[in-house]
Every structure is written in structure tokens, then in C-alpha cells.
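hi! just following up on the protien thing from before. the input was this:
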Amino acid sequence: MANIVETTGLTKQYQMGEVVVEALRGVDFSVRQGEFVAVMGPSGSGKSTLLHLCGGLDTPTAGDIVLGGIHMAQLSDDELTLLRRRQVGFVFQFFNLLPTLTAAENVALPLVIDGRPVDEYAARIDALLALVGLGDRKDHRPDQLSGGEQQRVAIARALVTAPALLLADEPTGNLDSASGLEVLHLLRRACDEQGQTIVMVTHDPRAASQADRVVFLKDGKVVRDVRLTRGATALPTVLEVMTALGL
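and the predicted 3d structure came back as:
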């Protein structure tokens, strides 16, 4: 299958006073269509930086990013905004739902921002809320939902535009273990049943073990890229690599 996202020599530097911090150092990274990839590494390894660059939330210091066959560096700011809006879905640790909107209205928000007639997407919104197990709670506001339910709404919102790429930054980091497992199972289902391409940053080996591949970063570089066998061996494999890398 074709690569949905591919980076070549990706470098990102930040100026911190008189010090230059290298968040990424020549990273080559790719994700195939329909693949679920987890990115792991210690704090400061460049995990979130890589995610933000792939989603067009930040620009690299050097290197190339190709998303859906489009070289992002060649786009104007307006073109990049449009690409991000239509081709990338985001799920963050903190759910970022609008408190005055219902679950269904929050899911519809990317459509509203893109100027699409929401009425034409009513069936899709209902189907996504059913997919995440909240079909009977579509009229509830965030303060009437648990943390796990809010994150499930956020996943439905990320999927509503049928993006080429879904990016999840520590999606279980603010949840208890049971709610986190539900979210991970939803992401796995989105990949398996809808062919959704997913890149997830996580520090949790149990979360990473749900993926097809785990890419390990350290000091801004890819140090291991491991393909997992689904099932009982996935978690031990992740833990073994983490131990070998001193993570």
C-alpha cells in the first residue's frame, strides 16, 4: 500500500535563549495506508514534535514531509490550513470539546469550520457516535459525560471528515485504565474496520501494543522500528525493546 505520510531528513530546532535545542535530527519516517503506528520515547525525545510536523501544526527546520502525495513545504499558509482541515484528524490528551455544544455538535464542528452543510452529514455523525458507543448520548454536553466518553466524542470528531491521517497525542493519558482501554479499542476498530491510518504518541507500553508498529525515538532520532504480531506477544515485545533501549 502507498504511504499516507512520509518524512525525509526531518529536522526541527528551537531557539531557547542562546541555546539551540534539536528536537528532531534527520528523521526518516513513513506510515502506510491503513496502518496503526505508535511512537514512543522518553520526554524530550521528539515524539510530539514529529506528530505536530506530520499534521502541519508546525514547520520543520529542514527536511521534507509528504502527506497524501503532497509536499507540505510547497504549500502556502492557506493551502496548508486547508490540507490540515480536510486530511488530518487530531485527538489530544485533553479532549478540547466546546462546553456549550452537544456531543453531536462537537462532532460536527470540523464540518462547520470547513463550510460544509452539516445537515447532509447527519447520518455520518450518528454513525460515528454509534461507533464510539454514544448514539444515545448525542444531545449531552461535555459536562454531562465522563472523561472516557468525552474522549470518544473527540475520536468521532476527528473521524467526521474521513481524514487521510488521524494523529493521537497521548489519547489515554488523562483517563483511568478502563476508559483508556476503551479508547484504544476504538482506535484499533477504526483502523481495522474503516481502514483509518493512525499515528499515536504514547508513553504507555500497553497502549503501544495495540499498534501494528512501534517507532522508538531517542534524542530526536529513530532508534528502533518494530513490527508487532497481534496478540499475546505484542506487549512483551514492546517491553523488551523498551528495556533494551533503557526507556
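The CA atoms of residues 23 and 46 lie 5 Å apart.
The chain has eight helices and ten strands.
cheers
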